[in-house]
């Protein structure tokens, strides 16, 4: 078993090429914007996790998905940041970054936000479109599915 550099729950996770990625989450005190990756070895074991950069927004309960060579981080809950500073609650924000051949992530960019902020939801891609499914917004379940066009 290989331990994350920063223990976290409610994280987004994705796979691309030879790497697994862990995005954001909560460490028991703060909502995170850190990203880690670990190489999947030829025998399917994992190499050590390493920190590879931050997202724009701190998020827990966000989803992460890869389409072509881009990763998309969708929604989530901003929660509490360093020093107990309050976040801006549930996010409609979507950010993405290019994944290089060596597994490094490019700079994250904001995309058009969802109309309905949500966290703890599902996400799939089909035909260069992203679908955010269900989730919650702190007050209620979100019963809608939103479609976002991908570049």
What does this entry show, briefly?
This protein is mostly beta strands and 151 residues long.
Q: How is this structure best described in words?
A:
- With 151 residues, the chain is mainly beta.
- It has a domain at 12-113.
- 0% of the residues lie in helices and 35% in strands.
- The protein has no helices and eleven strands.
- It has strands at 12-16, 19-23, 34-39, 50-54, 63-67, 70-74, 94-98, 109-110, 122-126, 129-133, 145-149.
- The strands form three sheets. The protein has a four-stranded antiparallel β-sheet with strand order 1-2-3-4, with no helix packed on it. It has a four-stranded antiparallel β-sheet with strand order 5-6-7-8, with no helix packed on it. Strands 9-10-11 form a three-stranded antiparallel β-sheet, with no helix packed on it.
- Strand 1 (12-16) and strand 2 form a beta hairpin.
- It is globular and about 45 Å long.
- 38% of the residues are buried.
Question: Key features?
Answer:
single chain, mainly beta, 0% helix, 35% strand
Unreliable parts? none
Q: Share of helix among residues? A: under 10%
Spatial sequence of strands, sheet with the most strands: 1-2-3-4
Give a count of the beta strands, DSSP E runs of length 2 or more: 11
State the secondary-structure class: mainly beta
Largest sheet: 4 strands, antiparallel
**Rg measurement, Å:** 15 Å
First and last CA, distance: 37 Å
Mean of the pLDDT scores?
94
Q: Spell out the helices and strands N to C.
A: EEEEEEEEEEE
- Annotation field: number of helices: 0
Shape by Cα distribution = globular
The share of residues in extended strands comes to 35-45%
């Amino acid at each position: 078993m290989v331990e994350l550099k920063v223990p976290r729950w409610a994280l987004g996770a994705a796979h691309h090429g030879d790497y697994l990625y862990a995005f954001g989450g909560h460490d028991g005190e703060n909502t995170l914007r850190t990203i880690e990756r670990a190489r999947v070895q030829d025998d399917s074991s994992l190499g050590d996790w390493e920190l590879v950069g931050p997202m724009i927004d701190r998020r827990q309960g966000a989803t992460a998905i890869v389409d072509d060579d881009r990763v998309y981080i969708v929604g989530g809950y901003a929660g509490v940041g360093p020093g107990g500073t309050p976040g801006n609650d549930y996010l409609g924000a979507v950010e993405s970054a290019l994944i290089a051949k060596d597994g490094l992530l490019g700079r994250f960019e904001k995309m058009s936000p969802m109309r309905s902020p949500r966290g703890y939801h599902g996400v799939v891609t089909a035909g260069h479109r992203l679908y955010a499914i269900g989730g919650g917004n702190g007050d209620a379940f979100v019963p809608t599915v939103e479609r976002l066009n991908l570049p």
